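Consider the following assembly input.
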Amino acid sequence: MRGRNIREAVIRAFFFASGILAVLVLVGIFLTLVTTAVPAFREIKIGEFLTKTAWDPTSPEEPEYGILSMVVSTLLVTGGALLLAVPIGIAVAAYLSDVAHWRVREVLKPVVEILAGIPSVVIGFLGLVLVGPALARIFHTGNGLNALNGSILLAVMALPTIISISEDSLNAVPKAYNEASLALGGSRWQTLWRVKLPAGLSGIIAAVMLGMGRAIGETMTVLMATGNARAFPHGLLSSVRTMTADIAIELGEVPYYTTHYYALFAIGLVLFIITFAVNLVADLVLHKYQEREQ
Amino acid sequence: MKISTRKGILQAVGFLALRAAMGLVLAVLVLFLYDIGRKGGGAISWEFVSQAPRKGMTEGGIFPAIFGTFLVTVITAALAVPLGMAAAIYLHEYARQSRLTRLIRLSIRNLSGVPSIVYGLFGVILFVNVMRFGTSVLSAGLTLGLMTLPWTITASEEALKTIPNSYREGAMALGATKWQTIRTNVLPYAVPGMLTGTVLGLARAAGETAPILFTGAAFYLPFLPKSLSDQFMALPYHLYIMATQHHAIQQVRPLAYGTALVLIVLVLGLNMTAVILRYRLRRKQR
């Protein structure tokens, strides 16, 4: 009997260790970024790092380490993506939950998931050879590798997330709300627009936040499709370089253990903090809403 | 009467807009797949998938990249599948509702939102530098494995949720211990579902580029990796190189299209296998 208890305890401990690993990895990522980023600030002032727009670490005269242009570029591309993906994503979710016949829905849901399965490097490639050239023709701008191109591609990538979580939240609205609205003489459209969307709003907000988190952290797509100019962006038709793209471009060429190397990890830390905050807010909204439904 | 016609028109217009949004998304998907399929199809041949690149990657095939992606995905699976299953078993079978359990769940959800390039940075420090695996297929596979972990945990837990509690209670009532119950009455029914879910995660990992950029993927190698400490070529990274870094980009565009098609067929093929398996499994369970 005792041997059995010990064995059970050992097995339980093994499973517990696997469970706690997730916490360790998350904390490990954060601490690794912090400890590798800190040496950068022996030479760079944190205030200048965050507020200066010039990033030129390899300048022979005076290296400059300001990430503001990259941060604004990331926010610009992400903002553009959300402008496209949020209305379309919510509309598709509403179509799937309230308009489509259930047989059509069963077919279309996996089809939307295919979109989520396309690797980001392929989406970036399509931005280079398909969407970019089309934009160049429409707006008469060089090669079409600009923030708008990135926004369109990131919108496509954020859509599956926004659609599936928004649809879940629309489906979670109690049937009684639906029936009460219809019984009072509301049309199906009015019920959707004035009852179900407001009732499912917290879930939809969470969906948008999660889509935003994905867009901010996406690397290959923006690296290949937005032109990578280091200048401060002037609008959606500017060529931009995001935080993720800058790390991807420079980490391969930088000598280890230099200020430039540490500074790239500092960008990674800023990126981590931003996405962590966005995901945490989404998580809180989503779980508050789930608890309410229970 | 007048009011109800206005209501009817409003509804017709509104639903039309929703259908248009659905149509737009489908059109984008079809356009993307069609463009890759049409232009990539021309590059595909037996030689393309079975030979190494030649003449500065302007001719020949992509076999080393296919092999490298296969190898790195096996390492990813070796880390993420068993640990993901074990973590899911802990969360669903052992853990009670406590602050610690909530912290673990919160960490898992947050890990799945960490940008892939940040996993790459973590891999450079942890696997390449601290553990001294160097830039190698092992470092890249482990980095991808950590990235895949939250997906395999979530997928495995979903599979455990489908096992009715009566299965567990039956074994417990006969005096089985917790682990005996899990081993004989839970896992045999849950493992197929766990595996289909984890295949989806592995498919995503196989298509990732950012985490392997600095942990082991190579621009070009004249030979296949002979051990886990060698660098490797990978399909997604090869596509990136052929699309943006090659010295004769326009000339090798057909090869880039071919690489994109092979990558998409591989990833979506894995995806669809998992989806079909899951669908069959659900019908069987009903």
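Residues 55-293 of chain A form a domain with the MetI-like fold fold (CATH 1.10.3720.10). Ask yourself how this observation constrains the way the partners meet.
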